[in-house]
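Sample 3 of the quickstart, ligand FE2/S2 (inorganic) cluster:
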Amino acid sequence: MWEYTDKVKEHFFNPRNVGEIENPDGVGEVGSLACGDALKLTFKLDKNGKICDAKFKTFGCASAIATSSVLTEMIKGKTVDEAARVTNRDIADYLGGLPEQKMHCSVMGREALEAAIENYRTGGKKKHELEGNVVCTCFGVTDREIERVIRENNLTTVEDVTNYCKAGGGCGGCRGEIEKIIEKMQADKMKGAPVLVPPKAGKLTNIRKIQLIQQTVNEQIRPALRAHGGNIELIDVEGDKVIVAFRGMCAQCRLTEFTMKDVVEAKLREFVSEQLFVEEDTESAQEPHEHRE
Ligand code: FES
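Result:
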């Protein structure tokens, strides 16, 4: 059972831009049928260098179809440089979120886009090649790709990595290696991470307060929630009131009241200000939608 947003369902049932452009300016092919997902993206530029048409063909689940469909919509009207800045997180956000176990579909979309742009920039000569050393032979995922999904999505567990790029989801033989990559990246991050210093009372400007709240959410709260398939979004700060929305598993969890007070509020009071209190933004909370694939 997967939870899908209305937008995912809409693009799954009515995918846009299905097919292949004749004489495209860029072609990107990623994945393989053996791995269960494959995507071919083609685009065409107008005389001003903007993407005027984009089409896709995909083999995969509802999420793969929906992410490919929105990707073609997202890049139309953009220059190649602008399109190159689209991340897998942008694709998932555009859909109002994806189940954690399906985030690899957004990564496949971003990879296909990069491959198509690379193909365009090399005058159609170059096809996408894997960079780095293959860590997961079941799904052909390299250390460079694993590091990238960890970095761009703040991943903290092997399970997260499997959700985002499939590595580790087959025979499991590479899970130890993935664990080592995560540990190394976390150690590197700790070395370079600025230390959160609780501010002195009365010295906090509004801007500094909001920065500290965001930093605390990113570094102290989100990793713990993500380890359980959940997430949190900072919606607003009104004086001492911090408004947050829970995502993923947390959005349906009956213990969110506990999480909000004993985890979120406690951390914000520890690292930002004793005066802060937290409320959940019920308006932007995702409605649970369920769909059986
Ligand atoms: S080698 Fe990665 S799951 Fe089999």
